[in-house]
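## retry 2 of 3
previous attempt timed out at serialization; input unchanged, resubmitting
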Amino acid sequence: MILPLYSALVRPHLEYCVQLWSPQHKKDMDVLEWVQRRAMKIIRGLEYLSCEDRLRELGLLSLEKKMLQGDLIAAFQYLKGAYRKDGEGLFTRLCSDRTRGNSSKLKEGRFRLDIRKKFFTIRVVKHWNRFPREAVDAPSLEAFKARSDGALSNLV
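## retry succeeded, writing output
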């Protein structure tokens, strides 16, 4: 009973607009993760498992991985042309003939200020370039979501 209530009432508040405000400090992310850990401890039979084991048992991703998945989905939509007018120059594709990794790597920008490292376009490039070819070359958003679930367990 707790899991459906948590999934319907609490988790949407924790995930609301994270692509825009994305927690920049570890302490902010820890506060959000604490809410999830507390809710998972309430479920009977899972009290003595570690947080990762509880999430795996329930088929959930940690909030950090869920936020990364949201970032990658948004990047996939931009790169596939879903936001053609607004996302014109959002990412720069890397021209390379290397066969290792996925075929659509993105160029990582270099900045003098550390604050720019937390921007969406910078935050997602490192993970996108390490993402497997099967997920990046998915024909549709639904296929990308399905393929990214498996890849996220190895990514972070």
